[in-house]
Each structure stands twice: as C-alpha cells, then as structure tokens.
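Blinded run. Sample ID left blank on purpose so nobody reads anything into the name before looking at the predicted structure. Input follows.
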Amino acid sequence: MKNIKCGIIGMGYIGVYHIDAIRRIGFAEVSAVADINYEIAKKKASDYYIPKCYKGIDELLSNPEISVVHNCTPNKFHYEINKKIIQSGKHIFSEKPLAINSRESEELVKLLKENPEVVAGVNFIYRMNPLVQEMKVKVRNGDIGKPILAHGSYLQDCFLNQTDYNWRVDKNLGGASRVIADIGSHWMDTVQTILDDKIIEVCSDLTVIYKTRKKPKTRFETFAVITDAEYEEIKVDNEDYGAVLFKTQNGISGVFYVSEISAGRKCYLNLEINGTDASIHWNQETADWMWIGYKDKYNQQVMRNPNLMADEVRKYSSLAAGHPEGWNDAERNNIYSFYKYILDGKKLGKNNGDFATFDEAHYIVKLTEAILESNRTKRWIKV
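Blinded prediction complete.
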C-alpha cells in the first residue's frame, strides 16, 4: 500500500500540529509545505525533514504526487485557497472557519458539489475526542433519557492583556467575529455532534473589552512571547467575550459563553447535556474523564477506558486506561478519520464520516453571523 502524499499551506502555529498528526496515522506522508513567508516555510521544512518547500499554493498544487492539501492559513485566505484546491481536483482538509462569511462558504459548498471526486473536511477537532464520541453514542442510545438542556463554556486568557496581539484581532484577516468564530465555533460543533442536532435560534451579548490593542512592529509567530517590543495602536472591532442563548431543532434549550480574556483559563472547553434520566459532562482540560449525574443514585466520575467504550469509538482511543489522551490525540483522530475515508474510497454525499464536512462548517459560519446579528439588534435570530 502506498502512503497518501500531502502538502500543507501555512506554516504557523497550527500547521506544525498537522504535520505531527499526519505522521502518526501511519499511511500518510507530508511531502511539501508552503507559506507566504518563504523563510518560515524553509525553516519548518528543515526542522521536520520535509523534502519540498514552496513559496505559495500554486507551486504546491502543481506537484502531481500530492493528493491532499491542508489549508492552515489565516481566516481571510481560506476561501481563495480552498477554492483553488477544489478546482485542482486534490482533496482538502481546511482549518476553521471554512470562510470569513457565509457568502464565501456557500460558494465553496456549491463548488464542492460540482467536483464530487474531491473529499473535503474541516478541522473541528473536539468532536474527535474519544469521550465526546462516547457521549454521542450515549445520547443516541437513550442512556440519559431525552436531552432537554445543553450548556457550557470555552475560556482562554490568550488576549487578556492589551499587548496580546495576533492576526485574529484584525477583522480584515480574522473576520468580523473573533471569540465566537475562533473558539465558540468549536463549542457549537461539539455540542451539535453530541446531540446530532442543530442550533436554529440564538440570542447573544458580545463585548469588546479593549477598543484598541498594541501590535508589535516586528514580525512574530502566533502565541509567541513578545518582550521589549515597540508597538503601534490598532483599533479593535471584534469581540473578546460572548454569551449565547440558543434553541435547537429538536427543542433543546441551552446557553454557552466564550472568552479569550479569562485569566488562568488556557483551553477550558466544557459542556454538559442534561437528560430526563441523567446528565453527562466533559471538560477538554481533563479530557480522559467524563461525569455522569443522576437524581436517585450516586453520580459517576468515569475514566476513559477503550475496553469499555462503544465498539465504534474504540478506534479513536489508542492508549490503555490511565494513560491520558488529549488535544493532540483528538487532532490525530480527526485527520485519521479524514484520510481513512479517502483510503476506503468513500464519497461525500454517499458515505457518512466522523470529520466535519463543508456543509457542517458552512452552517457554523451562518450561526456565527446570526450571533453577530443578534448582538446588533438585541433580539432572537433564527438561522
């Protein structure tokens, strides 16, 4: 069996983790990388022993050996690059959001349908944590009764200080929404995956804490620690915090709140589903544990154990119980699911997969826009 050869466009923070995850699945090979900053691309290619390095997407797409391309660029470029990859006939695995507005994401969905041989996925990774998949099975099997409430949060402190800055702060690069589009999108995708349901109505309150931020005048990588830098004042329009009430297609009520200014919170994604018989709760920072709550008997704190999981979930839990699996394992699971789908010859529209599709990612973009509209109009908005 030949390895599936792939290329990665965008060698910033997240691109490196794609390299690691691809290599871990065992039947894929990173053959090339590309970045608009050619010096960064060359360094990463050297650091990770990748044979080819290109200055841009067009050079990478011209390589006939590459059959899959990962788009790890800033949000603004997702539409243009995703479009080029689809038109090239290569399979595509894109970072989220699919595009910075629903007009662009809808066009990508339509273009993909015109190219049915192309397999396309989006990197919503939290759905691929083993215990999230286990929660999905428990809800589907009726283990918690009928779901009636869903709630939780996603909290970080990456933009707590006024000097905290990266391209996401610039709405021309990141889009009109920051915290909802950046981390709220993950929360919405995860809860919709667990419930096999859609959020169809939202009411939101969004806040910009820092109306201006200080941007370093020198070039830097995302999440790098900056010291002794000179700054320029940049106007900020996209939100630092957001809270969203919502209703789902199946009549579930819920609420979630997201923040990138919560001191001490690093990647605090947690969610809880309340059913008529039981509740289930999971927190990404303690990803190996799931809480199950009851009214009339003792609650349970359950450790991930592949020997006890549903059969369909075990393939996503490779370590024995007590050997913690976390974020990088969910990343690996997502990429494994995508590449295995290609290896098995499956086709979108005919075969289901566990990874997020362009259709699902397009809906998340529409949800984000509805949340922005709700904040502007101070009313409930239907999607």
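Unblinding after everyone has recorded impressions. The first helix runs from residue 13 to 25.
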